[in-house]
């Protein structure tokens, strides 16, 4: 692969078509005009001559991005000299200690802590996750998952989301937020798809930029992560990702570049390797592209335990090792003393960190902190959850619930009664409070309505032996309390009459997990390290908040030995043992069907519990949920399926449903927001930011292990620039639901498209009218797509059949018509030329389509791009 960016040159050159592949102009030496983000002489000349130059204009296409003003201590004129003075007084060991994390004696259990230098009055730095709210031991606003924020297609909302997290982070004693995550959704299996925004580079770039601005406007330093190509969890610490330079720049890097342009203070280097090199040692990424090309002036920290060396990581541009100093710290001091690493490299890294801290006023222990505003956080969480609610299907007037449908409702499914607040892993947040959808629906339906409930799919198990089996001696069906210092034990025989699939569950709180064995083998072994932590955002907890572990086993008919040993240790323990088998599953299903049949309408909550650290292995809903939906919809076709899933699921049951509402992980206000959308108090404002495939065999990473999950440790992004919806277009594959899809409760018409060159000639202004043709107020997300450049096509450049070029979220009253202009930036219309090491404008007559999804393109025009 060519170097990712080989020079500190930011000006890609003129707009006039010039052979794609022509060599790059000679780089400007560092320190001269042309280095960093300063305009090069060449660019100024073109600008003066009135020729549109493609510059490092913000990657986002729909709004201008100015450098972010930082609220306190902004670039104080004396900041640089203060940092220099501090640097001069720090000893080598003090300096290397500032480059790594360490234990926090008074923290809130946040992910990271860098001790200060008390001798010089430098305070400690606290770093907390994460993408959907501040993750500490204490409660914070649990916001909807970022993928749900993204579904609103609203950069302004992303800024407001960032502001809530920024303020809370500061109020909760934090200085740095380990968020936003902007890795693209490349494969539907990726465990963190809920934590990031989209499969589309432009949308992701717009949103990350605004979220960074919001976070930092409150004085919290944002860390954009994970640079780069950390698009899956499977083998994330070892996989070596290969993507060519065009693919990198046109897809995955767009969001990082936009975050840097928005002023992000920090960047997190990813776990994986990029082109054979650990991301934390990738000079190409961390120095040449990030600092040289984009002019990043903040610091780079490693992902947790992602540093593998001392000198190579530091000199490649990884300034800070987290969460501890294995390779930095004392090892780095030694390397300097032994002459293996130049002290200048240490100074550079320390200067970068101190400079950002100075910029945010975080070199002073006295930096003011706001107080939390939980009510404002909750309001925003609710707003995002309705704005991102995505109505995928709505047949036969199933939604909104009105008349008899609103007066007699059966709620089915575990996430109906237990709110699914956040996904698992580092994006999990302790919410202030969370009302279940069932309670919210009951409250909204009012006293005159009947809202019944059936579990349907058991996540918690039944007391033993309420199954098809016999357990002797009897096991207590209630909670078992084990006093501090005491031990409780049980031995018994479980006798089953048929071969069956069993699930065993232990719920426990207070102390150590009890040891439970089945036929001599431990059912819930404590797994080493982070495996425990990646147990999931939902199924790792019981309905009443105890820790929960599950073990699925196939049992043959006969007698099985069960033992339980529980220690009270120092604090005491409360626990219970539960199980499910074919008998309990059949009873749950029958109860759900009867409940559904007895009601006028059904709202069935289906879930999929994704977490950091683990990819999904199939796109189907887990457990028995497909059968549950089939049985319930057969009993009552007025069924709405509400999906609390991280990403796409396959829906063989789709045609039998009345409606499908995608609610992702909707945060602490998810219950009331779901009720508001179901009842039509809020229009479902979300649109898909990722394509939903029809099957496990029909998506961009299907069928070729080299493409996903990788083979022999190497993964090739050989779909190239055709990520997400672009791949479905390129391959003529029909999606289940296309990118940009989502229904409103009203209808819209599109008219009168006009496309004119933007001032300067390199971009476009796309103007059209959207009319609300229905009788309700509603939300529409108008989308602009651009076809390929004929001039680049003539040069054989592989271009997407259509790119998302812009969009506008609109709220229109009944009958309202709005004339809208969507600007399309020159950068959006450009391709990366590896030979020139820069962007080249895709000139010539290009097709412009406008519509309500990537597959509902209602208006068409052609426009000339470039002179
Ligand atoms: C994750 C990061 C996170 C960090 C600290 C890592 O495992 O990949 O996204 O910020 O842990 O919790």
Bound molecules: beta-D-glucopyranose
The proportion of residues forming helix, as a percent range, comes to 10-25%
**Shape descriptor:** globular
CATH superfamily assignment of the largest domain? Glycoside hydrolase, family 3, N-terminal domain
Q: Could you say how many structural domains there are in total?
A: 3
Return the average pLDDT rounded to an integer. Answer: 90
Structural class: alpha/beta
User: Which CATH architecture of the largest domain is right?
Assistant: Alpha-Beta Barrel
CATH class of the largest domain: Alpha Beta
Number of continuous helical runs: 20
Description:
Helix 5 packs antiparallel against helix 12, helix 12 crosses helix 18 and helix 15 (437-445) crosses helix 18 (670-679). The strands form nine sheets. A six-stranded mixed beta sheet has the order 3-4-5-6-8-11. The chain folds into three domains: 90-466 and 581-737, TIM Barrel, CATH 3.20.20; 468-578, Jelly Rolls, CATH 2.60.120; 748-865, Immunoglobulin-like, CATH 2.60.40. Residues 1-18 and 25-75 have low confidence and may be disordered. It is built from 20 helices and 37 strands. It is of the alpha/beta class and 867 residues long. Beta-D-glucopyranose binds at residues 111, 129-130, 178, 225, 303-304, 426.
């Amino acid at each position: 692969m060519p170097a990712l960016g080989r020079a500190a040159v930011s000006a890609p050159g003129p707009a006039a078509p010039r052979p794609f592949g022509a060599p790059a102009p000679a780089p400007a030496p560092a320190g001269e005009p042309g280095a960093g983000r300063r305009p090069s002489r060449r660019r100024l000349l073109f600008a003066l001559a009135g020729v549109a130059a493609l510059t490092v204009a913000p990657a986002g296409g729909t709004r201008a991005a100015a450098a972010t003003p930082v609220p306190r201590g902004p670039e104080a004129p004396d900041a640089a000299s203060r940092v220099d003075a501090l640097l001069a007084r720090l000893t080598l060991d003090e300096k290397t200690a500032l480059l790594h994390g360490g234990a926090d004696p008074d923290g809130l259990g946040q992910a990271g802590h860098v001790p200060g230098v008390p001798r010089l009055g430098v305070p400690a730095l606290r770093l907390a996750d994460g993408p959907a709210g501040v993750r500490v031991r204490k409660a914070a606003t649990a916001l909807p998952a970022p993928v749900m924020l993204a579904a609103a297609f609203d950069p302004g909302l992303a800024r407001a989301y960032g502001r809530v997290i920024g303020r809370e982070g500061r109020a909760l004693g934090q200085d740095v937020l380990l968020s936003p995550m902007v890795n693209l959704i490349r494969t539907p299996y990726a465990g963190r798809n809920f934590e990031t925004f989209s499969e589309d580079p432009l949308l992701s770039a717009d949103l990350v930029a605004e979220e960074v601005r919001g976070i930092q406007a409150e004085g919290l330093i944002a860390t954009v992560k994970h640079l780069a190509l950390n698009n899956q969890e499977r083998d994330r610490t070892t996989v070596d990702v290969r993507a060519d330079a065009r693919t990198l720049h046109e897809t995955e890097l767009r969001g990082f570049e936009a975050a840097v342009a928005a002023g992000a203070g920090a960047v997190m280097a990813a776990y994986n390797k990029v082109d054979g090199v650990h991301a934390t040692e990738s000079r190409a990424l961390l120095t040449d592209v990030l600092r040289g090309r984009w002019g990043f002036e903040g610091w780079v920290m490693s992902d947790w335990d992602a540093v593998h060396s001392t000198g190579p990581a530091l000199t490649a541009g990884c300034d800070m090792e987290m969460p501890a100093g294995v390779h930095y710290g004392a090892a780095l001091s030694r390397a300097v003393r032994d002459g293996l690493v130049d002290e200048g490299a240490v100074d550079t890294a320390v200067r970068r960190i101190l400079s950002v801290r100075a910029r945010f006023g975080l070199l002073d222990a006295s930096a003011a902190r706001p107080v939390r505003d939980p009510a404002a956080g909750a309001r925003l969480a609710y707003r995002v959850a309705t704005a991102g609610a995505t109505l995928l299907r709505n047949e036969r007037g199933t939604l909104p619930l009105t008349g008899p449908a609103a007066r007699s409702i059966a709620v089915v499914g575990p996430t109906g009664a237990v709110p699914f607040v956040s996904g698992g892993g580092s994006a999990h947040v302790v919410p202030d409070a969370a009302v279940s959808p069932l309670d919210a629906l009951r409250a909204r339906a009012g006293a005159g309505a009947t809202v019944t409930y059936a579990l349907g799919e058991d996540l918690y198990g039944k007391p033993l032996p309420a199954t098809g089996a016999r357990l002797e001696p009897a096991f207590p069906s209630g909670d078992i309390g084990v006093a501090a210092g005491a031990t409780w034990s049980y031995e018994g025989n479980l006798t089953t009459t048929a071969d069956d699939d069993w699930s065993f569950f232990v719920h426990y709180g207070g102390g150590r997990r009890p040891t439970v064995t089945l036929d001599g083998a431990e059912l819930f072994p404590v797994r080493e390290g982070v495996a425990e932590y990646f147990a999931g955002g939902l199924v790792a907890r019981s309905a009443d908040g105890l820790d929960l572990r599950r073990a699925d086993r196939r049992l043959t008919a006969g007698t099985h030995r069960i033992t339980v040993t529980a220690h009270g240790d120092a604090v005491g323990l409360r626990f219970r043992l539960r199980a499910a088998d074919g008998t309990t599953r059949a009873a749950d299903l029958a109860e759900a069907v009867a409940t559904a049949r007895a009601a006028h309408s059904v709202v069935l909550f289906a879930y999929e519990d994704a977490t950091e650290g683990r990819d999904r292995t199939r796109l189907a809903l887990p457990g028995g949920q497909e059968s549950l939906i089939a049985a319930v919809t057969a009993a009552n076709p007025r069924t709405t399926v509400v999906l609390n899933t991280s990403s796409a699921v396959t829906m063989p049951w789709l045609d039998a449903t009345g409606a499908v509402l995608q609610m992702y992980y909707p945060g602490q206000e998810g219950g009331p927001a779901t009720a508001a959308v179901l009842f039509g108090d809020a229009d479902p404002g979300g649109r898909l930011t990722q394509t939903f495939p029809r099957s496990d065999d029909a998506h961009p990473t299907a069928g070729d292990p080299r493409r996903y999950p990788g083979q022999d440790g190497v993964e090739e992004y050989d779909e190239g620039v055709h990520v997400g919806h672009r791949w479905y277009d390129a391959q003529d594959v029909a999606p289940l639901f296309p990118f940009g899809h989502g229904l409103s409760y009203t209808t819209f018409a599109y008219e009168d498209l006009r496309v004119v060159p933007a001032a300067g000639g390199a971009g476009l202004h796309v103007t059209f009218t959207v009319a609300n043709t229905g009788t309700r107020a509603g939300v529409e997300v108008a989308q602009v797509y651009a076809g390929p450049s004929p001039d680049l096509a003539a040069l054989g450049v592989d271009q997407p059949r259509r790119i998302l070029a812009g969009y506008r979220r609109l709220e229109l009253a009944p009958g309202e018509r709005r004339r809208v202009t969507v600007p399309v930036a020159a950068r959006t219309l450009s391709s990366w030329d590896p030979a020139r090491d820069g962007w080249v404008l895709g000139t010539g007559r290009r097709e412009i389509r406008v519509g309500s999804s990537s597959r509902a393109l209602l208006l068409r025009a052609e426009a000339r791009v470039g002179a």
